[in-house]
Amino acid sequence: MAEEEPADHPSLPGRLTAKDAFAKAMEDYRAGRHGDAARLFEALVEAVPEHAAACENLGVARQALGDAAGAEEAYRKAAEIDPRNASPHFNLGTLLGALLRTEEAVECYRAAVERDPGHASALNNLGIALCDLGRYDEAQVAISRAIATKPDHPAAHMQLGVLRLLRGDFLAGWSSYEWRWRTRPFLGEARRYPQPMWDGGPLEGRRILLHSEQGIGDTIQFLRYAPLVAQRGGEVVLEVPPALLPLAESLAKGPGGVAELIARGAAPPPGIDCRAPLMSLGRLFRTTIDSVPAGVPYLLAPKNLPPPALPPAAGQRRIGLVWAGNPRHRTDARRSIPPGLFARLRAISGIRFVSLQRDRPRRRLPSPAPCRSTTQRPC
To answer: Would you state the pLDDT for residue 4?
Structure first.
């Protein structure tokens, strides 16, 4: 953190000293009053132009407000004021990465690491950005350096798991991905379930809770494991998001299936002996690329629903399209496709495209939210 200027400045609200103004702005930011924090940081930067920490935190506040251009300007100015400091380069990298300016983000993270070789989060985010560019060898070097620098860095271990899965090293990938439960986004989730984790062994009649995690698409992918858990001799209680209850009902029919189906957020029924997150089942079943459960269909559409009203398609094949996920997801800009990109597909003959998009979000600018593993941070 840069030295605060102790003198009074008439341009600061209430004739605060620079030190007190900085403390108040930080208090506002931490309380979620990002607009108030930004205004006070702006006043402080105007009064003390060489205050690098105020300038950088102005960028953090502006980023929280969605002002990407203003945040970038503040980060770059902070880097000019204090050229040896790694922090503004790191924060600028999170901003540019979220804006899909991935090559520029890589350079920012490299600049941060040059100034602070032990900056594990910068190394990890560098690995994430390189993964996004498909430069897996370089990504593995960066993430391995992050873990060597800070062996208990949960986000780096989790990202190593993602990278290993991308490269087809499933067994090692599943193992590293379990570190997600030690990362901040998952800590609260883990505390919701007091039951012990299943070790993958015979269940011998015990009741096991399989609970969903992350998105609806992830849940659908891993529901294929529910019957396999029942085959281990367990009485399976399956928890899924409410929207998936009708689809998951087909798993609860017939022998050897799910014994009970509940909505996510509801209190688990009594008598649960152990539990397993759905996305941990790949590790528990030691799944490799050659042993992915592939019995299809493993889910069936509810028979009591009316058939969809499909457009006429005489002599054509209907193909369903989904182009956007949850618009509130922090990496939505990486996951969703502007629908206009599909326009060229209309030239393909013999095809009738049908929208399966549940929501039709308006076209939005990329969110300035931070990268996957490590957020921007105030000084």
So the answer is: 44
Q: How far apart are the first and last CA of the chain?
A: 6
Would you state the pLDDT for residue 230? 94
Token pair in block for residue 367? 């969110």
Distance CA 27, CA 39 (A): 13
CA angle at 219 for the pair 172 and 294, rounded to the nearest 5°: 65
CB 45 within 8 A of CB 38: no
Q: For residue 272, which phi and psi values (nearest 5 degrees)?
A: -75, 125
Which regions of 185-328 does DSSP assign to beta strands (E)? 207-211, 235-240, 260-263, 274-277, 317-321
Is-above-0.85 flag for pTM?
A: no
Which residues lie across from 317 on neighbouring strands? 351
Distance CA 17, CA 22 (A): 8
Q: CA-CA distance, 100 to 119, in Å (whole number)?
A: 22
Contact by Cβ (8 Å): 323, 357: yes
**pLDDT tens string 56-82:** 999 999 999 999 999 999 999 999 999
Residue 55: name the closest of 69, 36, 35, 76 by CA: 76
Which residue carries 């402080």 as its tokens?
Answer: 44
Mean pLDDT of 115-128: 97
**Beta bridge mates, 8:** 17
- Per-residue pLDDT tens digits for 14-62: 678 888 899 999 999 999 999 999 999 999 999 999 999 999 999 999 9
Neighbours of 315 (CB within 10 A): 7
Residue 115 backbone phi and psi in degrees, to 5: -85, -25
Q: What are the backbone angles phi and psi of residue 247, rounded to the nearest 5°?
A: -70, -40
Q: HSE-up of 97 (CA within 13 Å, CB side)? A: 32
What is the DSSP track for 305-365?
A: SPPP-PPP-TT-EEEEE-----TTSTTHHHH---GGGGGGGGGSTTEEEEE--SS-PPP-P
Burial class (CB in 10 A: 0-12, 13-18, 19+), 138: middle
For each of the domains in the chain, give its residue range(s) and CATH number, in order of start. 1-85 (1.25.40.10), 192-284 (3.40.50)
